[in-house]
Amino acid sequence: MAGKEKLVSAITSREEDFAQWYTDIVKKAELINYSSIKGCMIIRPNGYAIWENIQRALDERFKATGVENVYMPMFIPESLLQKEKDHVEGFAPEVAWVTHGGGEKLQERMCVRPTSETLFCDLYANIVQSYRDLPKLYNQWCSVVRWEKTTRPFLRSMEFLWQEGHTAHATEEEAEERTIQMLNLYADFCEEVLAIPMIKGKKTDKEKFAGANSTYTIEALMHDGKALQSGTSHNFGDGFAKAYDIQYTDKENKLSYVHQTSWGMSTRIIGAVIMVHGDDSGLVLPPKIAPKQVMVIPIAQKKEGVLENAQALCDRLSKVARTGIDISDKSPGWKFSEYEMRGIPVRVEIGPKDIENGVCVLARRDTGEKLTVNIADVEKEVTALLDTIQKDMLERARAHRDAHTYTAQSLEEMGKIINETPGFIKAMWCGSQECENKIKEEYAITSRCMPFEQEKISDKCVCCGKEAKTMVYWGKAY
Amino acid sequence: MAGKEKLVSAITSREEDFAQWYTDIVKKAELINYSSIKGCMIIRPNGYAIWENIQRALDERFKATGVENVYMPMFIPESLLQKEKDHVEGFAPEVAWVTHGGGEKLQERMCVRPTSETLFCDLYANIVQSYRDLPKLYNQWCSVVRWEKTTRPFLRSMEFLWQEGHTAHATEEEAEERTIQMLNLYADFCEEVLAIPMIKGKKTDKEKFAGANSTYTIEALMHDGKALQSGTSHNFGDGFAKAYDIQYTDKENKLSYVHQTSWGMSTRIIGAVIMVHGDDSGLVLPPKIAPKQVMVIPIAQKKEGVLENAQALCDRLSKVARTGIDISDKSPGWKFSEYEMRGIPVRVEIGPKDIENGVCVLARRDTGEKLTVNIADVEKEVTALLDTIQKDMLERARAHRDAHTYTAQSLEEMGKIINETPGFIKAMWCGSQECENKIKEEYAITSRCMPFEQEKISDKCVCCGKEAKTMVYWGKAY
To answer: In this complex, do B97 and A101 lie within 8 Å of one another by their Cβ atoms?
Structure first.
């Protein structure tokens, strides 16, 4: 892979094989490396820097709503995991067990956290006594482990990075409010920072989190017409509080159970960024999370004055954007392809002719468009262009999603859509799990969510023809 | 603990029982909570916010030297751990083993990383081919697990948070240079940000890292005269490269082994902050890492205008420092004690009389000193005071360390010092492990480091009386 003569080899096109295109990108843009542990990935600097930018932006938004960060142990004793029945049933089959430590067999085995509800409950039971101690709005950034048979970089791996927020409230209303608040926060973050529009809604009972009263979700549509669950927010009611005995004394000095929520977003969202924005030349990163937003490429750099001028441009642009420069002896063509593969939003080209004319060229990664601008105005021009790219990427993603959102009146219609022009399918549902199961069995289509914005497409369930209760977004999902 | 009438109960004094004083502080300042997993701690918001500030400052310094962040799997297959003989001997006894996952027994057990040299070696063997790929300057922020029988919050726990840097270089010289560069970076960080002066030096062979050619360390002196190893930087030479087959093609097209380093700092350093700066009223935080630097306390807050003026002060100060305000109905006396316990550097008091006179009172946490300043100048005054506190804390810590650094000419003298006036002991050493062992057996004193700044205290080894080679800092250690 290394050396002066390395060429940027082409990747599989999206049309030809979307799955292979995805794998090519994560490898060639050097986002990840496979590791010697099956199903675990190594996140390389190009990938991790994206995660750091996501973390920073999300964390700031969390803290603005009063959330505080903590760190909980990575191990959960088996007895603690087992206290909430639905929860343990949901997670026990996919955990990793530590059975030996310090050379000895453990008296009680511990799992590596697949999620930390049980640990937060244990903590809250200890530190919450009075209504004055509420709410508790804790979050942690960590890695979790879930044993998966089939894994794909970012989308599904045995270990992944995420944040998990866990809150405890005095009332049911307050817990519901926080659940929705965090869902909205996720959706706004995805639109404003990742340039990915989201459908917000509630999961059906079949699809909700193990132990939750209700699960809310944001769903995005990938370029290939498949859906990706991008973040979830759960309202637990007082179920966990009862299992873990988390009670507080209210203002009237009566004991009550707390009401809890949890909400999470993971490195999976990087998969969404790749599959929503990427193209056949590689990654396309929204400026707000791009580790480098601008790359300066000198043209004919051995000619007098080129390197100095390019470096001066880089220095100036570094004050307004995350800017890099490539002065290696590779050809400009190689460099163009390389930084296109890495998805850097703006390329700045500067050569002898440009210098003579007092201009440089800005090339947009998202459209390929080139603009010649005066060097004197370069900070202003680049800042404005990064803004435009960020907005345009969102609008293109929205247009693609809307163009691939369909309505269906019958099972047959659903099947035809999913096989011919895959996308979101809006269709009515009677509310029975039987119909949900049938749709899944026939077409591998799952209910993505019952959207907050309801429409009445028909009176009848798309599956059984009985009276419909809700409009559901359906789709094939990652 | 909760409720209006909660009193800030006194903590054990340092003189009475330093260990109990430490435990009292970590609990009462709400830095940690014990968890249901023996030896694992929960880092609560007050503690985690300190770690976030440490992380931010360190990470910035790392990146300024070209370091890039990555994330490696938390599991290490047994066969991978075993490739470097010294390394596995050092760590195997204290790891936790995962033997089951996804409901099945694993074909090969995996340990939870105690440190990640082996994983980084595996990665470098894959991605380093040519001299053009070097150096690799990777770092990760993560948690690691080491099975410990006796644990203490921050100082020694089964799981702890840290960063581990791992670099690969073309030459021996470059690796040595990076090892020393990172040691200096740690020492500067501790002095400039944590206000803790460090002794820099090299570990003896007995005390070096399992698998390293040489280990460098920074050592700090705690208030009780015991030493704390605060950060280490290791030069591996090409030992790991040979064990893991990490070769590159050099400019002459010959295959050579890379030279590697690793370096780490952990949540342990929070223990140093507590034990260097804390006093009998609680935590004392250096302004640069204090989650809140200033706390505004209204006096007689029910009197007209007090709350508004206090809030206005808080708003103005928020622009120059991390500022909070406590307008709860607890008494000012309670609030004073509470924020002293939490170590907040500056308290701002404002009451009806102050408002009349256009002044407010600034109280320093580190000295207890009070200053009356004009409200008009409050931003300037507080900024200057935070600076002064930061500097004074470093100077006081340095004076304490210097006053508790002794020289010894004989074993008996060492014993007398360590029992009567514990501190660092500078004494000559012949270089034999026999003498090192003897000193440890007799007085539980270990060699802390062979400092870069050598002095010639005598010609003879403090233990055997033979010719001395090096001056060593000795001490009792955490």
So the answer is: yes
pLDDT at B262: 98
pLDDT in tens, B329-388: 999 999 999 999 999 999 999 999 999 999 999 999 999 999 999 999 999 999 999 999
Facing A42 at nearest CB: one of B72, B94, B147: B72
Interface of B with A in 9-38 (CB under 8 A): 33, 35-37
Distance from CA of A42 to the nearest CA of B (A): 5
Q: What is the dihedral of CA B264, B269, B271, B277, to 10 degrees?
A: 160
Rounded to 5°, angle at Cα A119 from A115 and A121: 110
Cα–Cα distance for residue pair B374/B357, rounded to 1 Å: 8
Contact indicator for B339, B8 with CB cutoff of 8 Å = no
Using CA atoms, how far apart are residues A111 and B96, in angstroms rounded to an integer? Answer: 11
Please, which residues have CB within 8 angstroms of residue A239's CB and are 6 or more apart in sequence?
A: A84, A86, A211, A212, A213
The ipTM, to two decimals, is: 0.95
Determine the distance in angstroms separating the CA of B162 from the nearest CA of chain A, rounded to an integer.
12
> Average pLDDT in the B169-189 region?
98
Host H or E run for residue A292 = none
Distance (Å, rounded) from C-alpha A93 to C-alpha A89?
7
A135 preceded by a cis bond (ω within 30 of 0): yes
Statement: residue A275 has pLDDT above 60: yes
* Higher pLDDT, residue B91 or B2: B91
Cα separation, B228 vs B190, in Å, equals 13
**What is the end-to-end Cα distance of chain B in Å, rounded?**
30
- Is B101 part of the contact surface with chain A (CB cutoff 8 Å)? yes
- Taking the Cβ of residue B44 and every Cβ of chain A, the question of whether any pair is shorter than 8 Å is answered with yes
Does any CB of chain B come closer than 8 Å to the CB of residue A122? yes
64-93 in chain B: CB under 8 A from chain A: 68-77, 80, 93
Tell me: pLDDT of B149 over 90.
no
pLDDT tens, A6-42? 445 689 999 999 999 999 999 999 999 998 888 899 9
pLDDT exceeds 60 at position B36: yes
CB B425 within 8 A of CB B458: no
Across the range B95-114, mean pLDDT stands at 95
Token pair for residue A410? 């019958």
- Does pLDDT of A2 surpass 70? no
B4 touches chain A (CB under 8 A): yes
- Tens-place pLDDT, residues A97-134: 999 999 999 999 999 999 999 999 999 999 999 999 99
Domains of chain B: 18-277 (3.30.930.10), 290-389 (3.40.50.800), 405-475 (3.30.110.30)
- Give residue A24's pLDDT: 97
Q: Compute the C-alpha angle A203/A164/A29, nearest 5°.
A: 90
Written as six digits, the tokens of B355 are 């408002």
| pLDDT, averaged across chain A | 96
CA contacts within 13 A on the Cβ side of A323: 22
Please say whether the beta carbons of B140 and B116 come within 8 A: yes
Q: What is the SS3 assignment for A120?
A: helix
A97 closest CB neighbour out of B1, B95, B98:
B98
| Contact present, A196 and A273 (Cβ < 8 Å) | yes
Selecting from A3, A93, A145 the residue whose C-beta is nearest the C-beta of B130 gives A3
Specify the 3-state DSSP secondary structure of A62. Answer: helix
**A129 has a chain B CB within 8 A of its CB:** yes
User: Closest Cα of chain A to B334: distance in Å?
Assistant: 16
The answer to whether B129 contacts A70, with C-beta atoms less than 8 Å apart, is no
Question: One-letter amino acid identity for B13?
Answer: S
Dihedral Cα A33, A36, A40, A44, nearest 10 deg: -30
